[in-house]
Specification:
By secondary structure, the chain is an alpha+beta fold. The chain contains 24 helices and 22 strands. The longest helix has 22 residues.
Length: about 700
Amino acid sequence: MVNSGAHVPSSANQGDAASLASEFESLSADYQNVIRFAQHRHGIRVVPLQELKGGFTGAFLYLVSVSSPGSGQLEHLVLKLDRPSAGEPDELERHKRALEQAPPDFAREHMAEVAFDRVELDGAIAIFYRIAGESLHGFRPLDAFQQQSQVQAIFSVVNREILTRWNAVAAGFDQAVHPQSLLSRWLTDRLGPERNIEKFFKEVRRIDADRPGLIVQGRVYPNPLLFAREADLWGRARPIDAIVGFQHGDMNVNNVLVKFGEDGANLESYYLIDFAFFEERMPLLYDQAYLEIAFLLPYVATVDFARWVDLVTGFASQDIPDPQRVPIELAGAAAAISAGRREFDQWIRANHMSLTDDLWGQFWLAATAAGLNFCGKGGLSEQQRLGALIFAAAHLKRYCEKFGVPLPVDFAHLYEASHIGDEPGGRTVVSVSPMPATAEPEINLPVQPTRVIGREEETPEADDLLSDSRLDPRLNRDIGRVFVGRQRELAELTAALEEAVSGHGRLFMLVGEPGIGKTRTTQELASYAENRGAKVFWGRCYEEEGAPPYWPWVQIMRSYVQQASAEQLTTEMGAGAADIAEIVPEIRVKLPDLETPPVLEPEAARFRLFDSITTFLKDTSQSQPLMLVLDDLHWADRSSLLLLEFLAREMGSSRLLLVGCYRDTELSRQHPLAETAARLSREPVFRRQVLGGLGQDELGRFVEATTG
């Protein structure tokens, strides 16, 4: 032990090194024993001063006072207690190698030292870390911080400095790497048969691990385990250039120690610990993705799982979650992840602009690998492991769709949640039950059974419930959640979508009282639209005061901008980009050289804005159909309604479906929407459908479908 300058008088009673401080007695027996063994082996006495955090994976971190009775020395260290998997590498050797190879200033400022050899006993380990030149008071692991601004700061700094400082010299490139090869390098022998990931498929979820596709919430995702194993599944996917360098390998929430200033706002210092999986010349970005899923999984135990899944599956279509669509209980988590990803995107733009697609692709693959890794951690709950697998599948789908890898047509059902009610007062019933052994083993597209809660069978009398001849039969195949009735409404909605896809734009108003199912019906149509190849974007009007003008349109445009490249925006928006950027400033982030629009009279400026947005939407829909949803239009501001009217007059020859939902009970003759609806009804593109309550037969079938 290095002399810290603190002297313990020899007359002080330090006690027997084999004895255990009473504060440790609440720990499990294996942790108590390994602490006793560490004291005996190193001739030290360990007293806990503060528990820093108990990790959700079973690890514990303590600020401890460590004395050496023989030498009279004492210092403060961080003690980590954990249960590593069998066959993990020697941490001390890896840690020394990591310190030796890192840039000296980064190692000194951000990499903790190992104070003693690692001690292991009966599957438990004890590791003591020293942070040189720092008082340990105030340091906490990442997951001990709850304030959103602090967590955002941590993600920003760690994501940035892993690339710009730790890998400043080590980073290089491997050219033309096959995506399956990257997954294999990150996951190594975890992909083998009868390993934990495959066992989760077979023994926990009871589904076939060899199915190339998985159904989550009624949508098809590639099976990350099989895609990581088999290069043939990728078809003619092009290789990507991959950045390589130092990899921590276990960037868990307990392995990032952080200290903020007294004001709680300034991040003063951080240290990385636990380099047992350190590797050189590994594909980068795995650490960033690993930290994300490690940070997200504890939320599974505290929030509605279906809402958690909705957040994670959103990564299949956009890298930065739309804060307006994130559940409030997950807002902090989404903001932290967004902060880290923005740092990554800025790093790409500053250093490797021409490799934007490849580097984002590498990140999606890294997230796939990190999710699979956590899926294989047997110490997690079933929901957490399932969540990790869905995280992996969502990012793999993002990669496949961006790089033209076909989605599978042979699949197994992985997870479904049945949402009952789409308005306040509705409830959510979540199914995480595995497939029963009696489930039909062969499921191939286009047939897709509707999932009943907890069972892998078709909804009772499903054919009868969706037998209306006007309803496109593909809708029945593509909808994965319990949905009873609405045959006529869905028939008209899908007919409008098909007309839009064929080049005849449509505006469809869905009207009804609160809780009648407007949003739920629109979700079914959105699922169908996506499977028909359309992009779907949502905007929701805000009830309270304070929302800016055009708020639902801003949400739609912002969502589109976030998933588009700068080149794509330049091509699709053309000269109108500067006008649209007046209400969607995110455009200027991607197109910083945009000119400022000329100063005009308000009416003229509004016309330019309306014309630019309309032209953009019409032109963009020619390459891929668009479905835009304006929800809660009864709360819309007048500017948003005027834009809606303008677009309705111009969209006839587009491949655009615009769906508006509103409560007719909220409208009086003086309501702005009442005037707008009257004018819209005269447009050829306009359609309107009033949703009523379910009939007695439909209600009976609904109860039967949702209760089994």
